[in-house]
UniProtKB/TrEMBL annotation:
This is Unannotated protein. Residues 12-160 form the Flavin reductase like domain. The keyword Oxidoreductase applies. It comes from freshwater metagenome. InterPro entries: Flavin_Rdtase-like_dom (IPR002563), NADH-dep_flavin_reductase (IPR050268), Split_barrel_FMN-bd (IPR012349).
């Protein structure tokens, strides 16, 4: 048995995860990134956690921002997930996605069925990454959220969960 970085990554390729897009405002403008590390940690108060690699372009803005929006992505938004995962892409340019801002300034994409506006409460340095803890301040769930198949990331590929995947 080995515990190298490569074997660790290989092990987690066998573990599927949901896909989210995180948006925030920074001193240089809106920022967006795709994350497969989002999970809930508390219902009272509602809180979530995700990680970002310290070498990611969004790492510095996430260290400076106090407010973020977490979009839980469905299969219908796979293009948004891919765009926000792409290095160097202008995620807010063009007319591919409609985006808006909350009154408090955080940018968000209109398409996702579920989004959570959060205040960052803690940052925990963990190896080559930072864990971001967010307290959920506002939750938006569209009327058709239950009809949308969640997007899942597994073994470096995008997948859908639907009625056919229920055991």
């Amino acid at each position: 048995m080995s515990s190298t970085a490569d074997s660790f990554k290989a092990a987690f390729r066998h573990h599927p995860s949901g896909v989210a897009v995180i948006t925030l405002d920074s001193t240089t403008g809106p920022v967006a990134l795709t994350a497969s590390s989002v999970f809930s940690v508390s219902a009272e108060p509602p809180m979530l956690v995700f990680s970002v690699a310290k070498m990611a372009s969004a790492s510095q803005p996430l260290h400076e921002s106090s407010d973020i929006v977490v979009h839980l992505i469905s299969v219908d938004q796979i293009d948004l997930a891919k765009l926000c995962a792409q290095r160097g892409a202008d995620r807010f340019a063009g007319d591919v996605w409609t985006w808006s801002r909350y009154e408090t300034g955080e940018p968000f994409f209109d398409a996702p069925a579920v989004r959570l506006r959060c205040r960052v409460t803690e940052r925990v340095e963990a190896g080559a990454s930072t864990l971001i803890v967010g307290e959920v301040l506002d939750i938006y769930i569209s009327d058709d959220a239950d009809a949308q198949a969640p997007l899942v990331y597994h073994d470096r590929e995008w997948h859908r969960l639907d009625d056919g995947s229920v055991l």
